Amino acid sequence: MSEIKISMKLFGAFRKYGDSLELAIRPGSPADIVKETLGNVLGDSARPLIRDSVLADEETILPGDYIFDHDARLSILPPVCGG
To answer: Where do the domains of the chain lie, and which CATH numbers do they carry?
Structure first.
């Protein structure tokens, strides 16, 4: 079984981990699995921020049940505070 490559752009509070990274997931995995995989890479201290953040492609914010069946370029967007 081949893997799907996720190229992830990091923004806001995630920048301390770099500008981007790549993840590999199984075909048919939902967006929530992408976030879980990201937590495995970044570590337990990043999990609360990942949980509160959203994944987006070039056009829209993706729901947690969005299914990946091909390689994707995503961004993870942390919550924004301030005015």
So the answer is: 4-77 (3.10.20.90)
Which of 25, 82, 18, 13 is CA-nearest to residue 51?
13
| pLDDT tens per residue, range 50-77 | 999 999 999 999 999 999 999 999 999 9
Determine how many CB atoms are found less than 10 A away from the CB of residue 12.
Answer: 13
Count Cβ atoms within 10 A of the Cβ of residue 11 and give its class: 0-12 exposed, 13-18 middle, 19 or more buried: middle
Q: What is the mean pLDDT of the chain?
A: 94
Which class for 72: exposed (0-12), middle (13-18), buried (19 or more C-beta within 10 A)?
Answer: buried
Q: Are the CB atoms for 78 and 53 separated by under 8 Å?
A: yes
